[in-house]
Write a structure and sequence with these properties.
Layout lengths: L1 H21 L39 E4 L9 H15 L5 E6 L11 E5 L2 E3 L10 E4 L4 E6 L48
Protein name: PASTA domain-containing protein
Organism: Nocardia suismassiliense
Length: about 190
């Protein structure tokens, strides 16, 4: 049994010696550790929102001006502004559509009336004195127009106002507005290919 004990002790001594020579010695006072990762040290976890990232975190809702002060302006102007504001927050994360409000007869189909598809926040801010629209990513912002025919088609920044009816024009011979309705011309839309 003594030979067995001697062999075990010898094997243990060889193992301890081998382990102690593979560990580098530290210099006195050296308390630095080596990083095994090549990534730089950044506070917080990757993708974790910081205070300045509130609207830019994936999945976070975005804010754009409510555009209520733009009511009656050309639809193309409001649409361009909405697209620009949404693109500043995220690319293609909110779709923009248009719809007609048949009750807003004083506006043409080329005029902005209001919006649907977001939560209105009436709190004034720097960008919009009338508050903001809070949109969730993947949602649709619908710009509402009036039902009346515009002065010109296609919609642009000119000719967007409602077309005046022929019956509203005074009769050139008498200077009075006729009481009987005459047919009004409808705008022609030619398909583009």
């Amino acid at each position: 049994m003594d030979i067995r004990r001697t062999i075990i002790l010898a094997a243990a001594a060889v193992a301890l010696t081998a382990c102690s020579t593979s560990i580098p010695d530290r210099e006195p006072g050296d308390t630095t550790t080596q990083r095994t990762s090549e990534r730089p040290a950044v506070p917080g976890a990757p993708g974790r929102p910081e205070k300045t990232d509130a609207g830019k975190v994936p999945g976070a809702p975005i804010r754009i001006p409510a555009f209520t002060e733009l009511q009656g302006l050309p639809l193309v102007t409001v649409r361009d502004l909405a697209e620009t504001r949404i693109a500043e927050e995220c690319d293609d994360c909110v779709r923009i559509a248009t719809a007609v409000d048949s009750t807003a007869t004083q506006y043409s189909v080329c005029q902005y009336v209001s919006f649907r598809g977001g939560q209105a926040d009436p709190t004034p801010n720097e960008e919009s004195p009338n508050g903001s629209v809070i949109l969730t990513r993947g949602s649709t912002l619908t710009l509402i127009t009036g039902p009346s025919a515009p002065q010109e088609l296609p919609c642009s920044t000119e000719g967007y106002l409602p077309k005046t009816s022929v019956t509203d024009d005074p009769d050139p011979t008498t200077g009075t507005t006729p009481t009987t309705g005459r047919p009004t011309s409808k705008p022609r839309v030619t398909p583009t290919s």
